[in-house]
Amino acid sequence: MKEYKTIDLHIRNLTDPDVRVPDENLSALQELYALQDPYDQEKSDDLFVKAIQQCAAYHYDRNSFFRKWLDYNYFKSSDIQSIVDLEKIPFLHANFYKTHEIKTAKDEDIVLHLTSSGTTGQKSQMFYDDWTIFSSDKSADTQFDYYGLISNEPTNFLLYSYEPAPNMNVGTLRTRQMMRRYAKENELVYALKYTGNGHEFDLFGSIDALLRFEKQGLPVRLLGFPAFLYFTLERMKDMGYPPLKLNPKSLVMMGGGWKGFVDKQLTPAEFRAYIKERLGLPETCCHESYGAVEHGVAYIDCNHHHFHIPIYSRAFIRDVKTLEVLPYGQPGFLNVVSPMNTAVPVVSLLLGDLVVMHEGKDCGCGVNTPYIEIIGRAGVSKNKSCAIAASELLKKK
Length: 397
Ligand SMILES: [Zn+2]
Description:
binds zinc ion, seven-stranded mixed beta sheet, Rossmann fold
């Protein structure tokens, strides 16, 4: 097989020590990311507030845009004194980062530049320094660990994501590569193979891999875009293959949406039922991740399949019209506040996704932090784009 020189994705080992913050005045960030329990929100509240204050001050001192932005809004980092102050931080819309490069980190400290995998329109992008890559990955690591999804057992991987290729810096590609660390890799197969001048969906290679993995009996990890896994299993059905019976310690973890295939889209619950039918895997084997290129904090669904807010962020839902903070149970735009990013000032970010937030106790899984339910993805589909979903919502008012 031909070897291509691919981009260094800066993926550290799970056992590596924590990366140091880029400045000694960011000590609360270091402490926050050293906590073991990713959902102990109450205990982390004070530390979180301090970390946000330090992060805002750090960007304010080094980034002329961010300084002007806070000054323009008559806001100072010292205004952040308690958890109730977080919603007052002037937020920036995710789209803003698509068209503006407003790095705080010096160019020589930027080690990675990731983009979204969107095929149409303006791509999302984010710049990373060492700390920000670490903080992003750590937010996923602790949640995977919390849900018992890190395993030492030899495992076969079928990645429904892009095979690494020269100059390919897509965020979803890196996410899947990073998830290879969560089990001992036996065999690795890519469904989206690099051909030398682009990527192709290797349908028959995927079918072969699934049949082989079933026979071997090792746990299997299926990661990546759900539409491609769905197409593989549908084709197997059409070809007369009986349902597969994979090792019950397998994991099906899809993310990145049904981009380009929204007409075929199954709801997460339908998808889990489908996986049970076609792969013989119980619902507990299915997990999902939620994230945004601009945000970088990972959200891993709990055993009841809800995205609880981990200690690395706090979230608000804002009215689509007034942008005022809404109570639990009402749909609006997701506003996330996080101190994770030292490379770009993404302290308070307004995402285009339409989301409802619920009280943690309503889930019943044992995690007590609030959880978000994604109702509409921004810019995924022409028909259900957030703007349209939001305008539908406005009509109902
Ligand atoms: Zn839950």
